[in-house]
Amino acid sequence: MPTITTPNTNIEIFYEDHGDPQAEVILLVMGLGAQLTLWPDEFVNALATEGYRVIRYDNRDIGLSQKMEGARAPSLPTQVLRKKIGFPAKVPYTLTDMAHDGIGLLDALNIKAAHVVGASMGGMIAQLMAVHHGPRLLSLTSIMSTTGNGKLPQAEKHAMDALIAPLKAMDEETLVAHGLNVARNIGSPGFPFDAQAQRERVLKNIRRSVYPPGLPRQLAAIIDDGCRRSRLAGVRVPTLVLHGEDDPLVKLAAGEDTAASIPGARLVTIPGWGHDIPLPLVSRVADEIVAHARAI
Q1: How far apart are CA 25 and CA 54, in angstroms?
Q2: pLDDT digits 0-9 by tens, 153-184
Q3: Cβ neighbours of residue 194 under 8 Å, at least 6 residues apart?
Q4: b/e for 81-105, b at 16 or more Cβ within 10 A?
Q5: In angstroms, rounded to a whole number, what is the distance separating the alpha carbons of residues 155 and 245?
Q6: How far is CA 62 from CA 34, 66, 124, 160, 277, in A?
Q7: The listed CATH number (1.10.150.450, 3.10.560.10, 1.10.340.30, 3.40.50.1820) that belongs to domain 3-294
Q8: Hey, how many other C-beta atoms are within 10 angstroms of the C-beta on 134?
């Protein structure tokens, strides 16, 4: 699969293209520090089988897309403090820049409009695509994401600690152990955790790419963007919000706030679902997205 340079942001984006090239496009946008492979192959295939052209891509600073080498993110405590007192720290790039990357990918592929589906940070990016590029979106689906409202319940400590824990070494076993720890702590309590299958997925991902410096820069972009509720009030893209009722990282209240902030948005919540896409939920999540796209 190819790498292409976005004409608007001049960023090299690696993407995968599945399904009928003449069909309507579903663009998948993944979350913080997550490669495109975090969209399960089974999920991509389910959408393609329904007659869609499915494109998933690595955000800048992750996977096989361009790395922002040399750029330094402010420390997390410094950035949070400056944000609270109204003097935000300078960040290497913004979530809006990342939203422009996604639209730039569509431009480079000569795609006029797409159904945009984003998970977690990818949901935030997708929301900003709707804010800044509304006519380019046939529909929006925001999954396990948030408005950035600072008054919402915070992540459970064990989930956030696992996600941002520094790597103690870069050997394969340490990386696998780190990935399994993240998966256990943010995953879906209502669905069985298959340690062997998860280990195989983690190993495949780290053999594809490992790039720890990208995560703090992406996290800085999230913090810098702040609350999007006032911006989302102007969105006119048909919107579906999907959220797990047992998400330990981005709490259910965040999904409820997202749906309440976008005019006409429809909220669907699923018991037992955490902050991942477990294989038993692939069909349900894909069906919800397809039904939303076909209702437009």
Answers
A1: 6
A2: 999 999 999 988 988 899 999 999 999 999 99
A3: none
A4: ebbeeeebbebbbebbbbbbbbbbb
A5: 13
A6: 7, 7, 17, 19, 19
A7: 3.40.50.1820
A8: 13
Given a contact cutoff of 8 angstroms between Cβ atoms, the answer to whether 64 and 14 are in contact is: yes
Question: Which residues are paired to 54 by β-bridges?
Answer: 18, 26
Residue 199 has pLDDT above 90, yes or no: yes
Q: Are 74 and 90 in contact (CB under 8 A)?
A: yes
Please compute the mean of the pLDDT values over residues 62-86 and round it to a whole number.
89
Residues 6+ apart with CB under 8 A from 170: 210
What's phi and psi for 177, nearest 5 deg?
-60, -40
The rounded percent of the chain whose pLDDT value lies above 70 is 100
The pTM of this model reads: 0.97
